[in-house]
Amino acid sequence: MYSHAELEAIESASKNKNLYGDLKGTTMYISCEPCMMCMGAILYEEFDKLVYAATLKDSNDNYCKEMITNIDELAKYSKSKIEIVKELHRDKAIEVLKNHKDKIKNRILITGAVSGADESSKEIYRKLNSIIGEYNSKNMQIEVYSPLDTMKFTGNDYERYERAMNILKDTSIVIAEMSNISTGQGMELQEAARLNIPILIIAKQQSKISGLVKSCKNVQDIIYYDKDIDSIKNEILDFMKDNYLLVHGSFGSSFSNWIPYLRREIESKGLVVYTPDFPTGVGFQNYENWSNLLKVYVEANTINENTIIFAHSIAPIFICKFLVENKIKVKRLVFVCGFNNYLGIDKDYDIVNESMYFDNLADIKNYCDDIVCFYTDNDPYVKYETEKEFATTITENQILISGGGHLNSESGYIEFPELLKYI
Ligand SMILES: [Zn+2]
User: Cα separation of 401 and 351, whole Å?
Assistant: First the structure.
């Protein structure tokens, strides 16, 4: 099932989800003209009135690609008459579309010793700039700051500090060259840690990296190089290609529970995140159908050793089975209320869940060495012992949230800050 905001609104407003025309007499207000799928749903539900702000073309021009459609033509097929109010506060809506795009953090900060930097360290920064330039050419709009820019800056210490903080605010990745340590670096790294920005440490072999830096949770990796920094070029590029996949549970969608929250948080760090909508409902949700969709991502090389997957409810076991069967390694798995071989939730859940179960669950450890499982002691759908057993089979890294229910919107989890630590 695809889901758009209009469909979500219809679903939550509709009293009887199986009857068309349930929302007769209602007006729908949308910030952007509906796509043909949503317009179809609006007509089926026999809304009296539709009010929209930006047009599909505005979205196309300012935000994301849309198929332009003629909703007046579509409205002619409707059983009942619908009044359409167009382009109300259109300018403001266009601003929202533009701002949303601008909000994505697009800076990469290279930090390293600045004062008294000799020619050889300048050469390192130049090479780093050009390595990142290769990444940049495929991912437009990225700005790179390095100590070479800092050296040119002629402010006093306070202005220097202020400048660094301003750069960090919109930074998605910090690459810290730590062969030579300077105080400025420490300040930048501390602030990066506070802002939860991923940090990659690189240093010449034999450099001493302090335990404090090593143990910082934002430090994602430390790569040592021998003389030439170009020798670790691919590792640096791989680090920057990290991506995220968020997978919803049975009868869920990419708009359900904490998935929109987590997506926003990841996007706000300028990172790439995918939130596919898997087929749901009896007759649609099964292992084969879900696999077919995920294979599209695998073919596009978006699920690989740089991928971090967050999955809820039935999705953890689906992901384990999929990765093991397809022999795909990933960087990290964060599972929320996962379970295996559990029937008895209710008839519909059992039908859609059954094909996801899988007996060689422990094998997932061969495909990922960083797995964390969240579960609770009062899940109304799945027994505590079942979730605990699932977690224990695959990892020692377990987090029990007491009283958290199924860690879904029903138990108040439309936000889930505990997950941010694993981005
Ligand atoms: Zn739509």
Answer: 28
Compute the distance from residue 40 Cα to the ligand 1 centre, in Å.
Answer: 9
In the reported structure, the alpha carbon of residue 68 is separated from the centroid of ligand 1 by a whole-number distance in angstroms of: 11
> Hey, how many other C-beta atoms are within 10 angstroms of the C-beta on 387?
28
C-alpha to C-alpha distance for 263 and 265, rounded to whole angstroms? 5
Amino acid (one-letter) located at 146: S
Interval between CA 51 and ligand 1 midpoint (Å):
14
Alpha-carbon gap, residue 377 to 381, rounded angstroms? 11
Give the residues across from 222 on adjacent strands.
201
The alpha carbons of the chain give a radius of gyration, in whole angstroms, of: 25
Q: Which two tokens stand for residue 411?
A: 């138990």
What global pTM score does this model have? Answer: 0.55
Report the separation in Å between the CA atom of 281 and the middle of ligand 1, taken as the mean of its atom positions: 20
- pLDDT score recorded for residue 144: 84
Q: What's the gap in Å between 152 CA and the centre of ligand 1?
A: 49
Q: Separation of 3 CA from ligand 1 center, angstroms?
A: 8
DSSP, collapsed to helix, strand or coil, labels residue 243 as strand
pLDDT < 50 stretches in the chain = 1, 138-140
CA distance 239 to 237: 5
Amino acid at site 87 = E
| Ligand 1 is an ion; residues with CB less than 5 A from it | 4, 35, 38
What are the φ and ψ backbone dihedral angles of 107, each rounded to 5 degrees? -110, 145
